[in-house]
Write a structure and sequence with these properties.
- 51% of the residues lie in helices and 14% in strands.
- By secondary structure, the protein is of the alpha/beta class.
- The chain has one domain (2-328): TIM Barrel (Alpha-Beta Barrel).
- Helix 9 links the parallel strand 4 (162-166) and strand 5 (190-195).
- The two termini are 13 Å apart.
- The relative contact order is 0.15.
- It binds adenine and zinc ion.
Length: 330
């Protein structure tokens, strides 16, 4: 199964590029930028990656990205992950990035975009890896700030495939961002949102009704509402489920008890992704291998998950056709 999963062309729709910052690169960038880290060694940093919930993780995630200062840093961050992912048989990545987390630290959007777009161009030109861009907004910050950031990003709208909504879900319902998502729709941007990770199934319905999203990131708590499950089944809205993330953040107690088999059985359009691979124990291949071990899935299940992801990926029709062909002959 390992060999099969390694060579299977894999697609991930849910990856926070700042969450791909491995401790080794964090130390390198800290040194380059003269920044002191709260850890003495890479080993110490890794030992700190034990989380009891989403907020506990977010605290370290925002702290870790403090080493990202220059265009070169953002380029290095992204190309490092792209190269690793390609080595694991990943052929497409839809990448979230968090402008507000950088703006707050005084890093201009131009710096972030220039580095990430340079890495994307290089991946597409020479790595046989296509990359989608999701500009994500932090739901634990005010909607007015998000609206300002979206307007100021006007020169980059043409490079963005969608806007997203992430960060602390509890007590930050989708409805809080109604005006932002309305504006994104006016601009002609596709919309996606994290919902039903730590928040209730109602948040999934709200994201569909009020934010008019075409994708739900996570969505595992949909199983708490038959009505929401039926809506997702009928509409075939894709769920970007992140198995190792869910275990790390205690959304599920053990991968063997993950709701993924139930979601599939109910006929939902499911995909798997790595979310924040540097913090949750590995990238897309590691997620595939862990599911094979814990859930006993065969090749057909993994083909289905990646077929779903290819159908929904932010890429050209030509690339989609090519990836589908490669998947079917794997
Ligand atoms: N799993 C996650 N949930 C919400 N916001 C995030 N930002 C980065 N990873 C996240
Ligand atoms: Zn996420």
């Amino acid at each position: 199964m390992h060999e099969f999963l390694l060579q299977l062309p894999k697609v991930e729709l849910h990856l926070h590029i700042e969450g791909s910052l491995e401790p080794e690169l964090m130390f390198e960038l800290a040194k380059r930028n003269g920044i002191e880290l709260p850890y003495a060694t890479v080993k110490e940093a890794k030992a700190a990656y034990e989380f009891s919930d989403l907020q506990g993780f977010l605290n370290l995630y925002y702290q870790g990205m403090n080493v990202l200062r220059t265009e070169q840093d953002f380029y290095d961050l992204a190309i490092d992950y792209f190269q690793r992912a390609r080595g694991e048989g990943v052929v497409h990545i839809d990448m979230h990035f968090d402008p507000q987390a950088h703006l707050q630290r005084g890093i201009p959007l131009e710096v972030v975009m220039a580095g990430l777009l340079r890495a994307k161009e290089e991946a597409e030109a020479s790595l046989d890896l296509s990359v989608g861009m999701i500009m994500a907004f932090l739901r634990d910050r005010p909607v007015e700030e998000a609206l300002r950031v979206l307007e100021n990003a006007a020169p980059y709208w043409k490079f963005i495939d969608a806007i997203g909504l992430d960060s602390a879900e509890r007590d930050n319902p989708p409805a809080k961002f109604q005006a932002l998502f309305k504006r994104a729709k006016e601009i002609g941007l596709v919309r996606v949102a994290h919902a039903g990770e730590e928040g209730p199934a109602d948040y999934i319905a709200e994201a569909l009704d009020i934010l008019d999203v075409q994708r739900i990131d996570h969505g595992v708590r949909c199983l708490e509402s038959d009505i929401v499950v039926e809506r997702l089944r009928e509409s075939q809205i894709v769920l970007t489920v992140c198995p190792l993330s869910n275990v790390s953040l205690k959304v599920v107690d053990d991968l063997r008890n993950h709701p993924l088999p139930q979601l599939l059985k109910k006929g939902l359009k499911v995909t798997i992704s790595s979310d924040d691979p540097a913090y949750f124990g590995g990238g897309l291949l590691a997620n595939h291998l862990a599911c094979a071990d814990a859930l006993g899935w065969d090749a057909d299940v993994f083909r289905l998950l990646n077929r779903n992801a290819i159908e929904e990926a932010f890429t050209s029709d030509q690339r989609r056709k090519e990836l589908m062909h490669r998947l079917e002959s794997a």
